[in-house]
Amino acid sequence: MFHAPVWSGGPETTLSGVWARRPEAARAVAEAHGARAVTSFDELLESSDAVAFCVPPDVQSGLAIRAAEAGRHLVLEKPIADTLRDARALADTCDAAGIGSLVMFTSRFSAETKSFLERAGSIDVAGARAAMLTPAFLDGPFAQSAWRRERGALLDVGPHVFDLLTAAVGPIERVHARGTSRGWLGIHADHHGGAASDISISCSVGVQRGRFEIELFGPAGAQRYDVDGGEPAQVHATIRSALAAAADGRPHTCDVHRGLDIQHLIDAVERSMHEGRATLVSRAG
């Protein structure tokens, strides 16, 4: 749905091979995008300079570490791992291998988001509201995804919200979260510098189309951004160029360390829900 069209769609990259645990799935994707299906992950590494992952988080971290150790650049889905420990191990491996990385916080690659963040930089933000609400767990291609069902909207769409919100307002230092049995997650966040935000996340609401929105408030007024993902051809080209730059030693803002930063937030929110109280976001270790 996403990766194959991106990597086969322009001159910056070539889709050299496709591997999946189900060979028939690899063949279907490869044939549709002018690539070849390979029979093993090792064969994929041998035929590629970079590897793009679209697998569950607990699978991604282990495979990505193998790819980084083999000197391959990485395109990672969010979250970058299932646990904070595995995310740290992946980031450390990337550093040791000296490879480039890119995490698919896809909204960050649109021209509209770039413009919003430039406007946000001129606001003295006192408070913010953010929401990502979708029907993804009710119907459609992700409704039966086991890892999404187990870990909920926090791991699925939470990284997108955290990434864009902190890019606009600043790092989050403390969270107080509460989830309901019907799939609604509410988070109050305290940001570095004194701003606060309230976040609503759900993939179990019957809205006609997904909503991703951020609103910033300050003494001079407000800024609202309804995130729509941008024009696909522009976004895809920007992503390909970002990978080419990362492979050439020019890191992107959305690299594995950005993924690790978001993983710290996920960990803090899960601890807050478990403990029933506000939790500090620890980035040590």
TrEMBL record:
* Gene3D superfamilies assigned to the protein according to its UniProt record, in alphabetical order: Dihydrodipicolinate Reductase, domain 2 (3.30.360.10), NAD(P)-binding Rossmann-like Domain (3.40.50.720)
Q: Which stretches make up the Gfo/Idh/MocA-like oxidoreductase N-terminal domain?
A: 3-98
Q: List UniProt keywords, sorted A-Z.
A: Oxidoreductase
Q: Which SUPFAM superfamilies does the UniProt record give?
A: Glyceraldehyde-3-phosphate dehydrogenase-like, C-terminal domain, NAD(P)-binding Rossmann-fold domains
Return one GO MF term. Answer: oxidoreductase activity
Which residue windows are transmembrane per the record?
Answer: none
What Pfam families does the record tag this protein with?
GFO_IDH_MocA
Record's superkingdom? Bacteria
Tell me yes or no: is Oxidoreductase among this UniProt entry's keywords: yes
PANTHER family listed in its UniProt record: BCDNA.GH03377
Task: Identify this protein by name.
Answer: Gfo/Idh/MocA family oxidoreductase
